[in-house]
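My hope is that you will study the protein record below before we discuss the fold together.
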Amino acid sequence: MAVKYKNAKAVVTGTSTAQTILTPANATTAVIKSIIACEQSNNADTIALTITDTADTPVTFSLYKDKAISAKATAELLTAPLVLAESEILKAAATTASRIHLVVSYMEIS
């Protein structure tokens, strides 16, 4: 079993359609330890986070629907680790494109 520590970084551009932030590779599991969101434009905004399970229809599950991020503020969005299987996709969308930066720190197990 191999363990690697990684970050997925993104400027959230998805507004009407959520953009993919993290998809574990085949035969791997991602244990997400932290999701940090930072508003960069000096304008408050909201973010939505979802997990799409491609092995199950697919079905989309909401983690946050409209999480408010204050102007130039940083928010930690997790209070406990989150497991993402190889058939699952972490996605994000914001009210306004390019205002929120995300950093997802995770442990990849293969």
The radius of gyration is 14 Å. The chain has no helices and nine strands.
